[in-house]
Amino acid sequence: MRFRTFPVFTLVALACGLPRDPESTLQRVRGGTLRVGFVVDTPWVTAVDQGAGGVEGVLVAELARGLGARVSWTHGSETPLFTALHDGDLDLVIAGLTSESPWAAKASLTRPYYVDTTTVNGELAEVPHVVAVPPGENAWQVHVERVIESRKSELAALRHAAAR
Amino acid sequence: MSTGQKYRFPPEKWAQREKLRRLSWVSVGMLLLATVITGLAAGQSQAMKTAWISDFLTAIPPAALLVALRFELREPTVRFPEGYGRAISVAFLVTACVLTSIGLYLLYDSVMKLVHREHPPIGTIVLFGRQLWLGWVMIAALVVSAIIGFTLGKLKTPVAEELHSKALRAEADMNRAEWLSEAAAVAGITLVAFGFWWGDAAAAAFISVEIVRDGWKNIRQVIGDMMDESPTKLGERELEALPLRLRAEARQMPWVQEAAVRLREHGHTVTGEVFVVPRADGLSAAELLTETERAAARLERADWRLHGLTVIPVRALEETSPPRVAPNAERREESRDAAD
Predict the structure, then answer these.
(1) What is the pLDDT of residues B164-187, one digit of tens each?
(2) In chain A, which residues have their Cβ closer than 8 Å to the Cβ of B133?
(3) Which residues contact B145 (CB under 8 A, 6 or more apart)?
(4) What does pTM read for this prediction?
(5) CATH number of domain containing A35
(6) Which site in A19, A53, A147, B14 is 20 to 30 Å from B309, CA atoms measured?
(7) Would you identify the CATH topology of the domain B242-339?
(8) Number of structural domains, chain A?
(9) ipTM, 2 decimals?
C-alpha cells in the first residue's frame, strides 16, 4: 500500500511543481543563463578556454544542455565565489569540493556524484565529491541532484579515464 | 508509631502503578524510536532538528520516572528518615531544567536563522531505488512521530488521574505539545516546499516556545513541591480541599475542641500534621495517647494518598489556618481592593 501511494504522492507533488525555489533559480536558468563559479582542481575541474572542463565541467555542460541554458563562467578563489553563491549571484560552484567541506554552512552541498577512494594521512578513505548550490533553492537542488544521479556512471568513467 | 514508616501503596492502586511503569517503558521505547526516525530524516531543516531534539527530550521524563519508581517505595533509613517518596520530585526537577534550557537554546537558534534570513536547503534522498525530495520524507517521519506522541498522551491521562500523579500528567501534557509541534513542523516544511523559506525556522521557533512552556510549567510545579505547597488539583494551580476536609473531620471527634491542618505533597503521597486542642474535661495521659493514635489512623483513611500523618495535641491554637497571602503581599491585595 505504502509503496503504491509513494509514486502517486510524488506525481501529485511534481504536477504542482513542488518543491519550489524561493528565488526561482530553476525557472530562471531554464532557457536562460546558468551562472557557474569555478576553482581549478585537476582532474575534477580543469581550465578550458574561458570556462571549466574536467569531471565537474562535464556535469555543468550536461546540466546546461538539459535546460537549454547558456553557461556564464566566473573564475575565482573559493571565498568570493561562495559569497556570491550565498547572495544569489551564482547558481552553482564547482571546486573539487567534498561533502566534508566547511562551506556547507554558507552553501548547500549536493549529493555526491562520485565517491573517491584515496589516501588521507596514510589511511585509505572514502571521499564523496559534491558541487554547491545556493542554500534553500530546493527545486534547483532537486534538479541538479536528479541529473547527478542519472549521470553517475558517466562521471565515474571520466574520473577513471583521467586517473589513467 | 515509628519515626520512619514504610509507605504501603494501596493494593487497589497497585495495578495502576504497574500500568504506569509499563507505560513509562513503552514511552521510552517509542520515543527513542521516534528520535531515530526523525534523526534519519533530519537533513538541514531547522524544524526537523528541533522536532528531533524534542523527541529525544520527551523520552527523558519517563526514564527519570522509572528510576524514581525504583526508589519510591524504599524503607526509610537513618539518612533518609522521611523515606524516598520525593525521588519522584527529583526526577521531575531534572526534567524541567533540561526542557527549559534546551527550549531556550532552540528558540534562540531558530530566531537567529530568521534574522539572518538563512534559507533551509533540503535536497534529495534515494529510497527504495527512487529519488525523492527529502522534504516529503521528513513529513512522513514527523507524522509517524506525531502519532506516537498522540497515542502516548491519550494512554497516560487516565492513569495519571487515577494515581493523582503530577509527573505522569505533566508527561501527558508534554506528549500533547509534542504532536502539536510536529504538526507545526509539517506545516513549516510544506511552506518550504511552496518556496517560503521562512516556514521552516518559524515552525522551529513555535516548537521551541512550546518546549519552553512545558519546561516552565514543570519548573513551577516542582518548585511548589519543594516549597511544601499545600496539595493542588491535578494539572491545575487550585488548592485541594483536603486540608479543610481533614480539619472538619478532626473537629467532629468528641474529644477535640479545635483543630488545624498542615499538608504537603511528597511525590505520589501526601503527608503533614494535624494539631488538635483536646477538650478541657480532663482526659488522662493514657487516654489522650490512645485517642491521638486512633485519630491519626482514622484521618489517614480520608484519602488513599495520605501517609505518615501526625496528630499533635496542643494546649491552644492561635490560628487555625495561615492567611491566604503573605502579609507583605496582602498590603498590595488590599490596595487593589480599595481601587476596585
Answers:
(1) 888 788 888 888 888 888 888 899
(2) 13, 18-19, 138, 142
(3) B34, B37, B38, B51, B55, B178, B179, B182
(4) 0.78
(5) 3.40.190.10
(6) B14
(7) Alpha-Beta Plaits (3.30.70)
(8) 1
(9) 0.80
